[in-house]
């Protein structure tokens, strides 16, 4: 799918980017069952009904936080790093784009004023939830994919 990018480094999936231009009828799942965060796009015609339902109590084991960012407005640069804190490369996100950050490490630079939603497992554990480290110098940034 040209509007979907699976960002991989080696065999490891770091992120799934779905561009604002993605359109498919029905339900399209982007995440695989082993991920702790599910990402899907749904497009239904007028008159379609989805049966009332509730979600059952299911015990799940989550070892690492995975997060989804939905860009409402602006431009955001996502920088990918290994878990050993080595810079890999970057991607640019614009209004309507969505990213599921699956593994590795990441940082962000706001290129144009941004408004976005963040969705991830909770509750937020404050500083115990993450390890901060030094970002890559701007001179070493390599943006792959559409420049937007």
UniProtKB/TrEMBL annotation:
Provenance organism: Bradyrhizobium guangdongense
Origin: domain of life: Bacteria
Name of the featured protein: Cupin domain-containing protein
Family annotation (SUPFAM superfamilies): RmlC-like cupins
């Amino acid at each position: 799918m040209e509007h979907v990018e699976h960002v991989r480094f080696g065999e490891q999936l770091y992120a799934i980017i779905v561009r604002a231009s993605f359109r498919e009828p029905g339900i399209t799942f982007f995440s695989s069952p082993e991920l702790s965060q599910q990402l899907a796009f749904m497009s239904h015609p007028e008159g379609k009904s989805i049966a009332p339902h509730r979600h059952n109590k299911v015990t799940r084991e989550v070892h690492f936080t995975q997060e989804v960012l939905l860009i409402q407005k602006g431009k955001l640069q996502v920088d990918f790093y290994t878990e050993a804190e080595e810079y890999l490369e970057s991607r640019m996100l614009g209004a309507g784009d969505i990213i599921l950050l699956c593994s590795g490490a990441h940082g962000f630079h706001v290129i144009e004023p941004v408004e976005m939603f963040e969705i991830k497992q909770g509750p937020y554990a404050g500083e115990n939830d993450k390890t901060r480290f030094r970002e890559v110098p701007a001179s070493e940034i390599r943006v792959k994919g559409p420049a937007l």
